[in-house]
Amino acid sequence: MSKLGSYFNDKDDPRGGNAPRHKFCDLMTISLLCALCGGDTAVDMELFGHMKEDFLREFLELPHGIPCHGAYLRPFRLMKPSSFQAFFDKFRADFAACESRRQTGH
């Protein structure tokens, strides 16, 4: 399975403008992992980030630390639902394929 970061790149970042403080990949990865664990608000995402910071730093850059809840609001407000749906569909398909290979031993 691809690394989570490969699903998000700067061209997909809807924030544009003058260099957002937090990396789009970091925000989206934390958002996804939080949602998979039952979180559904920006506050949940921030709290999840703080609770799992050591783990997240194993594969995310987080150059400015864990984003505050407000940092999650802007990309989700600006992102087209179809953009996020396309990302999630790709992630889900790759995850299912990886799990299927694991179960069959291939």
From the structure above, extract its key features.
globular; 106 residues; mainly alpha; single chain
The secondary-structure class comes to mainly alpha
Number of domains: 1
| Global morphology | globular
The percent range for helix content is: 55-70%
> So how many helices?
5
Work out the strand percent. Answer: under 5%
Instruction: Tell me how many strands there are.
Output: 0
Q: Span between N and C termini?
A: 13 Å
Rg calc: 14 Å
Largest sheet: none
Given as residue ranges, the uncertain stretches (5+ residues, pLDDT < 50) are none
* Topology order in helix (H) and strand (E) letters: HHHHH
Overall mean confidence score, pLDDT: 85
Q: What can you see in these coordinates?
A:
With 106 residues, this protein is mainly alpha-helical. It is 58% helix and 0% strand. It contains five helices and no strands. It is globular, with a radius of gyration of 14 Å.
Give a brief outline of the structure:
With 106 residues, the protein is mostly helical. The chain has one domain.
Topology:
Layout: H1 24-36, H2 42-51, H3 53-56, H4 69-78, H5 81-104
Helix pairs in contact: 1-2, 2-4
